[in-house]
Amino acid sequence: MKSARGHQHGGDIKPVVKLLYRHGVPQATIARDYGLSRQRVHQIIRGYDNRLSTGRAKRYLWAIELEKELFQRSGGVCERCNGRAGRLIHHRNCNEGDHRLKNLNYLCPTCHYKIHTAKRETTRLQEELEHQKELIKTWFDVPLAF
User: Fold this and answer.
1) Does 21 fall in a domain?
2) Domain count within the chain
């Protein structure tokens, strides 16, 4: 394949872009000479890789490695139902910044939905229970032991 400037490049252009940048060639020049956007040149240099992304989210290389480890641990199936193909990473403690393997599950979309729906329902029921306790306190003016 030839770029707009006549450069011949096939397959993977990433090593060429990285090499040129390391040797001081400006990103704009690399983009122009190889028919790439400046944004794409920046992504190649910084190591972005969105092959496994969903939606508009970009994943970094460490996230891809982490997903590979989860895939190997689970055998590619949901770690909750063991039936369907796992495709989503779930944080057990709901902290999306905690990427330790022991905090992550590889889940199918159905199980991931069920987990988050159950958590919302549990939170709603806890709030309702607290509200009921407050009503009982105001009605009878007695401390509750439960």
Assistant:
1) yes
2) 2
pTM here is: 0.43
Tokens of 16: 């060429």
β-sheet bridge partners, residue 8: 2
Write out the two tokens for 142.
Answer: 């007695």
Give 107-119 pLDDT, tens digit per residue.
Answer: 888 888 888 887 7
Based on the fold, state whether residues 3 and 32 are members of the same structural domain: yes
Q: Answer yes or no: do 39 and 106 share one domain.
A: no
The CA distance from 102 to 91, in Å, is: 9
Q: Output the CA–CA distances (angstroms, integers) from residue 65 to 59, 68, 69, 84, in the order listed.
A: 10, 5, 6, 22
- Are 36 and 13 within 8 A, CB to CB? yes
Structural domain of 111: 61-146
| Residue pLDDT, tens place only, 86-144 | 778 888 887 777 788 888 888 888 888 888 887 777 777 888 888 888 877 777 766 65
